Amino acid sequence: xxxxxxxxxxxxxGVGYLADRRLSTSVFLALQLQRxxxxxxxxxxxxxxxxxxxxAVLQRDLIRLQCYxxxxxxxxxxxxxxxxxxxxxxxxxxxSGALAGELEREVYQDRYLIRRPLxxxxxxxxxxxxxxxxxxxxxxxxxxxFLLEYLGEYQVSIPELxxxxxxxxxxxxxxxxxxxxxxxxxxRRCLYQWLDYPERERELAIVRAQVPLxxxxxxxxxxxxxxxxxxxxFANAFQxxxxxxxxxxxxxxxxxxxxxxxxxxxxxxTAGILFKQREDVAALTPELAGTLLQPEAG
Length: 298
What we know:
Shape: elongated
Distance between the termini: 46 Å
CATH topology of the largest domain: Rossmann fold
Strand order of the largest sheet: 2-5-8-1-9
Largest sheet: 5 strands, parallel
Order of helices and strands: HHEHEHEHHEHEHEEEHEHHHHHHH
Radius of gyration: 24 Å
Structural class: alpha/beta
Helix content: 40-55%
CATH class of the largest domain: Alpha Beta
CATH superfamily of the largest domain: P-loop containing nucleotide triphosphate hydrolases
Number of domains: 3
Mean pLDDT: 91
């Protein structure tokens, strides 16, 4: 797919995703070894966006399975179109000599199968799909166990049809915000990468790439301000630090407000873009904003 890690890194940058060397290496190996890649990290550090970027550079369809508490297998893999099957059975009632086994084979045909994300990914035409299993930590442990066959063999089992294997192995990314620890069996079947908040210079480059209307000076202020928010001792004042997504959205909002230079008032007024918790918004007072905007000592 890519001749080198540098080629992959440049391709991702070409679609606006600036990956560091370590992440680029993990993605390159996942592609070369055809292994799922598990991405863990705080919300907003670019896990989901990586799947979108890979879909673009590989020119593959992106299929997304959004996980949540109570997610069932039928919602992730397949279910039968029971209404159509019932109509088929009713139409066959008057047929003389129809055997029960024959009718069962007829109603469990491919045309009555409703494909959900996992099955869609396995049966995607060439060159295959990019499958994003998003926020897998929100699903329960039985669902993790259900995923093992897919993760280990790119295969699922449908009782009425038998095993379904991938003709073109999907590029598979799993994301986790670590709301709970995943089972070791899942981790063993994946390559692993922890995504942290970016260094200031890389975040500046991301903001400049994603918000081209922002001036260099404003983008530098945004990157510096958010970096200080995440650092000690200021980070202790907040429940959750803003991610890259919030930095980019904040820069867009500041451009929309025709902001040229950050000041405590505009920071306080737009705190609801950086933070999504009432307590965190309240904690970013004009006084604290003024402190954060002061040049760092040394």
